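Dig into this one:

. . .
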Amino acid sequence: MKKIIGIALGVVLTTLSCSEKKTEKEVVDTKPTVPVIRENGLKIAFYNQDSLKSGFTFYKQMDNLVKNKQIQFQKQLEKKQLDLQSYLVANDELAKKGQLSDLQMQNIQAEAQRREQEIYAFQQNQGGAIEKQTVDLMNKIYKKIEEASKKYCEIHKIDMLLVQASGSQFNYINPTMNVTKEFIGFLNQEEKGK
């Protein structure tokens, strides 16, 4: 019995001493080993995409154009909905007073359904058209940015121009690589030259 307790105690002590060694912090080398492509290194820069919305003149103009169309669409939709509501309220009052026949009430109900369908069709057609215009304008903006990016990089010998945006893949980019202000100036200059 004493031998079994002695062996068990030995196993426990050995396990504890091994586990204590594992808890010591290991020093890990965190220095990246990224190969340099050229002798003088890569030139990498980034711009903040959100800043283009407020700084790139063409972007602002297109964004305002889309917003104005959306506002105009919303006003037209609200007017159609208010007209329908007024029509229903006015005829409801007449019905409560008993001034409408069954045939008139059926006609009013049919007219209300026709107007509702008209509003739905307006939402689908006009809303879809505005959405398509928005996508087309955004593609046009991104195409301009893409073309200007290439030219900007060629002029300034930048190997890689990254885009930083909220929710982007980059956790950290050294701020010394930020060319947002300069790139926006270049975009505006290019746009004026056209």
